[in-house]
Design a protein that fits this description.
single chain, alpha/beta, Rossmann fold, 2 domains, six-stranded parallel beta sheet, 6 strands, 13% strand, globular
Amino acid sequence: MKIAIDVDDVLADFNNHFAQFINTHFGYSVSSQEFFSFRYEESLGCTTKKAYEMVDTFFASPDFAEIAPLIGAVEGVEELKKHHELIVITARQERIAQETLDFLTRHFGVFYSEVVFTGQSREPESRKTKAQACKERGVDYLIEDHFDYAKQCADLGIKVLMIDVPWNQHAKELPPEIRRVTGWQEIVAILNSAQ
């Protein structure tokens, strides 16, 4: 099968590291478990401009390069690559492409046949969506944490394993193509039994 994998909060433990960063550098006192929305301005009670400023400052800091893999991701990728074609499809922007590739290589090696940067996280109207990228590449499954991206894929008939996190809890009724999962061990079990 062809499986697309998101980066932030699927491969990379982004929100935990971002929360630590804004606590230290912007005076917050939050954990990633308090991010009830994918939009930081909603979870943090700040403006969109301020949220972008904090994210951009994080990207430019040495802390960004220190993001660890999500628990179980390294082992999960190692297992999946034995039986499946893996590609990375991220909403990250091209401007942090090198940092993203460095993260992937440092922690996972080159396990993917392609890395696609949609830029959808910051430029939703100007780029292809993850769903379009998955459809064009014949993806069977997407591993994702963002409900909107998962729903767009589901609408095109692409199956999604959506990691259960606070920022996707608003989605109570899921289409049949979306299945909530608790982590990488469950992801591997489902995908290896689906082949």
